[in-house]
Write a structure and sequence with these properties.
Elements: H1 17-26, H2 31-44, H3 48-72, H4 78-87, H5 89-121, H6 127-144, H7 146-175, H8 201-215, H9 220-224, H10 231-260, H11 266-271, H12 273-280, H13 286-318, H14 336-355, H15 360-366, H16 371-392, H17 406-424, H18 426-449
Length: 460
C-alpha cells in the first residue's frame, strides 16, 4: 500500500507555522548565492541575470506543478510518491533514490565547507574534527524531534534573509551614490566591460547549468509541510511565495553585484560574490561578516539535506522500496533509522574525502550533476499525467498549474533542451554521463525490487 493511503500518520505534525513559513522563504538560499555565484558571473558576465531569470521561471513552473499535486495529497515522499502514482513504481523508486543520493552527498559537502571556515578561525583544531562535530550536532537534533530541525532551520533561515536584505540595502545605496564609504555608484559595469553579453547567448545557456543547482531545494517545503498542521494550506502559501523569493533574493542581489563590480575581475572568484562587493565598498569587517553568513548557510543546507534525505528514505521504505526499518518512527514521530542511515552514508563520503582527497569524493559528487533536472522532468511528467487523469474523472484540482497543458509541455521542452546542451559541452558531458549511469543503475535495481508488485492505484 503506498504511503499516500496512510497519510504519513506515523510522522508528527510538530513543525509550527513560523518554521514552515521561514523554510519556504529561505529554503532556496544556500552558500551558492553568497560565494558560488561568483563562478557563474565570471563565466557568463552580466548576462548571468538572464540565466537566473530563465532558471527562476523554470523553477516557478515546476513548483506550481508540484504544488498542484501536493495540495491535493500532502506527502513526505512528495514528487517520488506522485511519480509512483502517475508513472509507476519504478519511476517513483528511481527518482526517490536519486533524490536521496543527491542530498546524502550534499551533507559532507556542506559539513566540510563549514569545517573549513571554522578551521580558518581556529587553526589549532583539525578540519576533520569540525566536520565530525557539525554532523554530530545536526544529526542529534534531527533524531530527537522534528521541531528541533524546524527551530534550527528557522534561525538559520532568518540569518540568511537578514543578510541578503542588508546586502541589498547597502548595494542600493551604492548604486544611487549614497554609500559614504566608497566612490562606487551607478550601473555602468552592466555594459562597460565587453558589453552585457560578452560571451554570447551560449554562455547564458551555460549559466543555466550552473544556476539550476542554486535553486534546487525549493521543493523541500512540500516535504516539510507534511509534518505540520493543515499542510495543504501551507504548501499553497509557499508556492505563491516563489515568485518574489526568486526576484528578491537572486535577481535583485545579482543585479547589484554585476552593476557595482567588474565581472571579469579575478578577485570576484577569489573572494566570493558578496565578500568581493562589500570589500569594494570598503565595508568594515566584510570578510568576517560574510564568513559568519556562509557558515550559517552551509549549516542550513546540511540541516535541510539531512532532513530531506531521511524523509525521502522514510517514504521509500513505507512503499516497500527501502529497508522496512527506515519506515519506522520513534514515539516522537521521527524516522530515526532513516536519519541514522542517511547520516552514516554522508559520513562515509566525508571519510572518503579525507582518506582520498580529490579522488573518490570528487567522483561521487560528479554523479549528481543532472539530478536536479531529472527531478524537475519527473515532476512535470507526473503532473501532466495526474492532471489529465483528474480531468477525465471530472475532479480538476482547486490549485492549478497555469495554462495547462501548454506551460507544462513548455517546461518539459526547456528541461530536455538544457539536458541536451549539457551533453554538448565538454565541461559538463562527463557529469551528465555519470548521472545517467547512476540513474540507469538505480532503475535496473528497481526492476528487481518492484518485480511482481501491482501498480499503485491512482490517488487523483
Amino acid at each position: 500500500m503506498p504511503e499516500s493511503r496512510t497519510p504519513a500518520a506515523a510522522l508528527s505534525d510538530g513543525l509550527s507555522n513560523r518554521q514552515v513559513t521561514m523554510i519556504s522563504i529561505a529554503g532556496i538560499i544556500g552558500a551558492g548565492l553568497f560565494i558560488g555565484s561568483a563562478n557563474a558571473i565570471a563565466t557568463t558576465g552580466p548576462a548571468i541575470l538572464l540565466s537566473y531569470a530563465i532558471t527562476g521561471l523554470l523553477v516557478l513552473l515546476v513548483m506550481r506543478m508540484l504544488g498542484e499535486m501536493a495540495v491535493l495529497n500532502p506527502d513526505s515522499g512528495s514528487f517520488s510518491t506522485y511519480a509512483t502514482e502517475a508513472l509507476g513504481q519504478r519511476a517513483g523508486f528511481t527518482v526517490g533514490w536519486l533524490y536521496w543520493w543527491f542530498w546524502v552527498l550534499l551533507i559532507p559537502v556542506e559539513a566540510i565547507a563549514g569545517a573549513d571556515i571554522l578551521h580558518a578561525w581556529f587553526s589549532a583544531v583539525p578540519s576533520w574534527a569540525f566536520t565530525a562535530a557539525i554532523i554530530a550536532v545536526l544529526t542529534t537534533t534531527n533524531l530527537l524531534q522534528v521541531k528541533n530541525f524546524g527551530e534550527f532551520e528557522f534561525w538559520f533561515s532568518l540569518v540568511k534573509v537578514l543578510a541578503i536584505v542588508a546586502f541589498i540595502a547597502v548595494g542600493a545605496l551604492a548604486v544611487f551614490g549614497a554609500w559614504p564609504l566608497a566612490d562606487v555608484s551607478g550601473v555602468r559595469h552592466l555594459f562597460a566591460n565587453q558589453g552585457f553579453m560578452p560571451h554570447g547567448f551560449g554562455a547564458v545557456l551555460t549559466g543555466i547549468l550552473v544556476t539550476v543547482f542554486s535553486f534546487f531545494g525549493a521543493e523541500i517545503v512540500t516535504i516539510a509541510a507534511a509534518e505540520s498542521k493543515r499542510p495543504a494550506e501551507k504548501i499553497r502559501r509557499a508556492i505563491n511565495l516563489v515568485v518574489w523569493r526568486i526576484a528578491l533574493f537572486y535577481l535583485l542581489s545579482i543585479f547589484l553585484v554585476v552593476s557595482l563590480v567588474n565581472w571579469s575581475d579575478p578577485g570576484l572568484r577569489q573572494q566570493g560574490t558578496f565578500q568581493y562587493v562589500l570589500t569594494t565598498l570598503n565595508m568594515p569587517g566584510a570578510k568576517l561578516m560574510v564568513d559568519v553568513v556562509v557558515f550559517v548557510a552551509v549549516c542550513s543546507c546540511m540541516n535541510s539535506g539531512l532532513y530531506t534525505a531521511s524523509r525521502m528514505l522514510f517514504s521509500l521504505a513505507r512503499r516497500g522500496d527501502a529497508p522496512a526499518a527506515c519506515g519506522r518512527v520513534s514515539a516522537q514521530g521521527v524516522p530515526r533509522a532513516a536519519v541514522t542511515a542517511s547520516t552514516l552514508a554522508g559520513f562515509a563520503a566525508c571519510v572518503a574525502n579525507y582518506a582520498f582527497p580529490g579522488r573518490v569524493f570528487t567522483f561521487l559528487i560528479s554523479t549528481t550533476g543532472a539530478i536536479a533536472l531529472l527531478v524537475y522532468l519527473v515532476i512535470a511528467a507526473s503532473q501532466l499525467v495526474l492532471r489529465r487523469r483528474a480531468e477525465r474523472r471530472g475532479q480538476p484540482p482547486a490549485f492549478k498549474m497555469w495554462l495547462f497543458p501548454w506551460l507544462t509541455w513548455a517546461a518539459i521542452g526547456v528541461i530536455l533542451a538544457v539536458l541536451g546542451y549539457m551533453f554538448a559541452l565538454d565541461d559538463y558531458r562527463e557529469q551528465g554521463l555519470l548521472t545517467l549511469a547512476v540513474a540507469g543503475g538505480v532503475f535496473v535495481v528497481s526492476l528487481y525490487v518492484t518485480r511482481g508488485r501491482r501498480r499503485a492505484a491512482p490517488v487523483f
